[in-house]
Amino acid sequence: MKNIVGVVLAGGESRRFGSPKAFAKREGKYFFQFAINALRSFVQDIYIVSHPALVSRFQQVTDDKVMIDEEAYRGQGPLAGIYTVMKQTDAEWVFVLPCDMPYIRPSTVAKMMEYVDEQVDIIVSAHFDRIQPLVGIYHRRTMEHIERLLKAGDNRMISLLDCCRVRYVNEHDFMEEEIVFRNINERNECDDIVT
What we know:
Blueprint lengths: L3 E7 L14 E2 L2 E2 H9 L6 E5 L4 H7 L3 E3 L9 H12 L4 E6 L7 H8 L8 E4 L6 E8 L3 H9 L5 H6 L3 E4 L23 E2 L1
Parallel strand pairs: 1-4, 1-6, 4-5, 7-9
Antiparallel strand pairs: 2-3, 2-10, 6-8, 7-8
Helix pairs in contact: 3-5
């Protein structure tokens, strides 16, 4: 699809995990690489938004663009990451994935893309009764709402969803295994993970 970029959000501190989750491994690949591989065929460019301390580490293992949040909103979570990419590109749509979902698949991204529609501002997964704002596609017209929220110190993704036209897709729209949407927060959550 024209005019869409991919964003992998990898700026969290991974406190519960104990080390940067993006660099944990499953099947010999870093967690963040699963998100990149899922997005690669469907977007023009991929941006990794991360913490300043991790930028050089990413640059050692990927050729994709690595950036840090706009200084004014640094530390304000995923909203700041999405806003930063929207400011740096002229892409009409931004497909966001987190770095800690190592079971995500290209087929899931493909199915989500089918719901891109100019009548909505955001398409978000709500599979299995769990809204996943970080598995979502955001139109650049949401940028003004994001900036307003960040300026107000409200960095909750749900606040953005509340003020936009959102298409929630779930298992009634397309079936997917529940594991695909699993966020890994602690090391003991999966048997096949190496840290």
